[in-house]
Design a protein that fits this description.
With 113 residues, the protein is an alpha+beta fold. It has five helices and four strands; from the N terminus they run αβαβαββαα. The strands form two sheets. Strands 1-2 form a two-stranded parallel ribbon. It has a two-stranded antiparallel sheet with strand order 3-4. It is globular. The termini are far apart.
Length: 113
């Protein structure tokens, strides 16, 4: 419900902190696809906090991985995957998606060490 309220307001920036964390996997994936579509259609900038590597790669055009305390940037990665006109399953199966996912996963593991 909070996401719907946030999207209803016409702002240029949307801040989201783990908005899909409490959802089942199917609902989470569908809302990710909806958010990706709405972002592409509106051009709205979103800052999305997540602990999910897949979610970060699917939704992000730029991914920043932070270290433990003190929080420093461990990775700043631009993701150049198509934002629209591509089936979500096809996107997730692209080699560039797998490469980005691997790079982010490695950075997360290293930052947590």
């Amino acid at each position: 419900m909070a996401i719907a309220r946030a999207l209803a307001v016409d702002t240029s920036l949307l801040l989201l902190d783990e908005p899909f964390a409490a959802l089942d996997a199917l609902t989470r994936e569908r809302l990710q696809e909806d958010l990706r579509r709405v972002s592409a259609e509106t051009g709205r900038t979103s800052v999305f906090v997540t602990h999910s590597v897949d979610e970060a790669v699917f939704l992000g055009s730029r991914i920043i991985v932070l270290t433990k305390r003190p929080g420093q940037i461990a990775l700043d990665l631009r993701v150049d995957l198509p934002r629209n006109g591509v089936d979500p399953d096809d996107l997730r199966n692209q080699p560039a998606y797998a490469i980005a996912r691997t790079e982010v996963a490695h950075a997360v593991r290293a930052a947590a060490a």
